Amino acid sequence: MKIALIAHDKKKKELVNFVLAYKSIFSGHQLYATGTTGEQVIDKVGVPVHRFQSGPLGGDQQIGAMIAENEMDIVIFFRDPLTAQPHEPDVSALLRLCDVYKIPLATNLAAAEVMIHGIERGDFQWREIVK
């Protein structure tokens, strides 16, 4: 599966720790991430990650383009709901694309825990490709 990893600045450490805790699962999939998030995952977890631009510089849109082309299966996006983001329109567009293309989206640790265990069990084989 192709899994996107995104985290706002105050959530990057939490996402890195999450990927580290489930490294054995993530290692079996293709990982994509926005700039700094991907760099931290590579450095601290040691798994390969295709890095896009940082979110404010277009990384969210690059992942959105993959979603629109049916090239992304899952998005894990640890959002910081208490800090205004300068690229909020890009974030909203990404979330909308996940809904349009029926891409499972976890925006916090609890949802990501449920999702990662679903990946481990193979629960996402149902994902329909929207044409």
From TrEMBL:
The active site is at 60 (proton donor/acceptor). Substrate binds at residues 8, 12, 34-37, 54-55, 87. It is an enzyme of class 4 (lyase). Residues 1-131 form the MGS-like domain. Belongs to the methylglyoxal synthase family. The keyword Oxidoreductase does not apply. Its EC number is 4.2.3.3. Catalyzes the formation of methylglyoxal from dihydroxyacetone phosphate. The keyword Lyase applies. It comes from Salinibacillus aidingensis. The lineage of its organism: Bacteria, Bacillati, Bacillota, Bacilli, Bacillales. This is Methylglyoxal synthase. NCBIfam families: MGSA, PRK05234.1. It catalyses: dihydroxyacetone phosphate = methylglyoxal + phosphate. Keywords: Lyase.
